[in-house]
Amino acid sequence: MNVFDKYHLPTTVNEALALLAQYKGRARIVAGGTDLLVDTQAEYHHGQRPHFDALIDVTKIEGANEIRERDGFIEIGCGVTHTQIVNSPLIQERATALAEASFVVGGPQVRNVATLCGNVAHALPAADGTVALMALDAQVRVSSYQLSVVSEQWLPLAEIFNGPGKSAVDSTREMIRAIRFRPCGEFEASAFARVMRPQGVALPILGMAPRVKIENRKSKFEIREIAISAGPVAPIPFRAKQTEEFLRGKIFDADVLKQAAQILLQEASPRTSAHRATKEYRVALLPMLLEQTLGIAIERAQITNDQ
Ligand SMILES: Cc1cc2nc3c(=O)[nH]c(=O)nc-3n(C[C@H](O)[C@H](O)[C@H](O)COP(=O)(O)OP(=O)(O)OC[C@H]3O[C@@H](n4cnc5c(N)ncnc54)[C@H](O)[C@@H]3O)c2cc1C
């Protein structure tokens, strides 16, 4: 069967989930298709048949293309592309790490169709959008269909990853309807940076995103709240909990940064990947990226302080 004979464009979540149910696990959610169709094509070239008979495109669902503020959160619908995120003043100002992460995903053609929710659903520990969202303590709205009724719940982002490329959200039966996180407030900011091969348009060698809230103590800055995510340094998207714990309550200076880098090296476990980098190279990059991104986040948090 040619899968493109069965390409559905539902306009409601209910319709999308009813279609998935109708195909009994033989249909799959698609958004930009920049992961799914590339993977499917690669499998096809290796002689494998597509593992679905139909695609359910969620980008035309009402409200799916919106970025909005609701209940104290910034909410991003399942059709929102990386280009929309990059161009959003709200995200640039209040979730800078995410704007920076989306800005480096692929090239413009990819960013114009690829969605943030697709980046998360693909469940890779190196995915740029996911690395930024982990630092923002994001949640995902998972919609499923039971006995013809849609049920929805917000889950912490960190809970939906089961392994590299393995999501707890079964895209043949349920969908991520939206992603949300709290915007950075006063004295608070985030940053994202990655190291990448110069000619690269795929996943990075290493990415990192801190979010920090500071307090000014006689022109020195105490770290009040901190979140640091990095990838790929573990089989699933990673939060550097021990490094965060060490930094919380500390006055930020060169010595503290050096100690934090040592803790980060102990808790992160990067590995060698065939096409991207050795473990040793990634280990060498970790302290460098921590210094760069945390320094930028703290500088930004000071600017919000001055306003
Ligand atoms: C040339 C190229 C360069 C790339 N560069 C980068 C890069 O630099 N950084 C990076 O992180 N990624 C990169 N990617 C990967 C990809 O573009 C991103 O991961 C993108 O965000 C995926 O979104 P999508 O909408 O295209 O997902 P799709 O391909 O449509 O879907 C991906 C997976 O998620 C599922 N899915 C999609 N949406 C939902 C939903 N709402 N609910 C449940 N399941 C869903 C699908 O079933 C599929 O399993 C690149 C890809 C290409 C082709």
Compact summary:
This protein is an alpha+beta fold and 307 residues long. It has eleven helices and 15 strands.
Notable characteristics:
307 residues, alpha+beta, 5-stranded antiparallel sheet, globular, binds flavin-adenine dinucleotide
Descriptive account of the structure:
By secondary structure, the chain is an alpha+beta fold. It has helices spanning 13-22, 36-45, 82-86, 89-94, 96-103, 108-113, 116-121, 128-135, 241-247, 254-267, 279-306; strands at residues 7-8, 27-30, 54-57, 67-70, 73-77, 139-146, 149-156, 161-163, 166-167, 175-181, 188-190, 193-195, 206-217, 220-231, 238-239. The protein has a domain at 188-306: CO dehydrogenase flavoprotein, C-terminal domain (Enolase-like, domain 1, 2-Layer Sandwich). The protein is 35% helix and 26% strand. The protein binds flavin-adenine dinucleotide.
Which strand order does the major sheet show? 4-5-10-6-7
The main pleated sheet reads as: 5 strands, antiparallel
Series of secondary-structure elements, N-terminal to C-terminal: EHEHEEEHHHHHHEEEEEEEEEEHHH
Please give the alpha-carbon distance between the first and last residues. Answer: 60 Å
The CATH topology of the domain at 188-306 is what?
A: Enolase-like, domain 1
CATH class of the domain at 188-306: Alpha Beta
Average of pLDDT = 94
Tally of strands: 15
Silhouette: globular
- Total of DSSP H or I helical runs spanning 4+ residues: 11
CATH superfamily of the domain at 188-306, called what?
CO dehydrogenase flavoprotein, C-terminal domain
| Small molecules bound | flavin-adenine dinucleotide
Provide the structure class. alpha+beta
Helix content: 25-40%
Percentage of residues in strands: 25-35%
Taking pLDDT < 50 over at least 5 consecutive residues as the criterion, the unreliable ranges are: none
CATH architecture group name of the domain at 188-306: 2-Layer Sandwich
